[in-house]
Amino acid sequence: MRAQSLVSLLAVASLVFGATVPNPTPAPDSLSNADRFARGLAPAWPAALKRVPHNTAPRRLRRTTVNNPSPTVTTYDTAPTSVLTDRTYIRDNSVFQDDQFYVVNFPVPITIYNRTQTRAYVSCNGNLAFDDSSYLYTNTALPKYDYFTKWTMFFFWEDTVILQRNAAGNTNFGIYYDTNTITTGSIVVQELTIEWYFSKYHQENEYYHYTSFHSTARPGVWTVKYYQGSHISDNGVSSTVGAQGPDNRFMQWTFDQPVVRAGKQIVMDTNTNTYVVSDFTL
To answer: What is the pTM of this model?
Structure first.
């Protein structure tokens, strides 16, 4: 009753004094993505998917449009060279993909910061995590616990997209993996290689091509290789590479530095929370 009376008094005041009674502020969940962006809020997340809760105030993001596919999606007639010949797709390039992540049950175990499992969340923004993931495409310095879980590998966190294949279907953009089993006597080693091939949001002439490798012979150690010629187009000048774990353990090779060149590799050891960067032969 008091709330109704207050609204009535404000309405009378507006008639008498010419004041404007403001409309009630809509609940954030009822706003369109365009309205959310105008208010400096992060985009609404699809109900079928979720992100890690965060306790920090949302900030205005880098992109000038929110969750809209590129208006002119470029497709390629020349297939980029793929590393894996026998592969299983995590996400193919049958449709344009932007800021999505996918739940994958790998056939081999993987380890991040002393935790081992086969189920992981793989993002087309270059992350792999346990328990959950995030649509956050604006890379930051690490750690980033308010959006990502305590078991996250940032192989190349950048605002990357999977371009749709052309009519001939002969492009290799996407995320895919292959496994290998090596048996020596009673010792069985299981290997996983994930290949990532992306373009950049609204800069479809730029390529990002790399692999991440894990072996049960060295659980928790990830080797990332960045490939061929122009296929790390801007040397990672707007990317983050590293990892974060529990108890505020994290490592960061680069944040917004042009050092991720073709022919570079990083070995990230989440057991010791250390990394080594070197060159390899393309």
So the answer is: 0.71
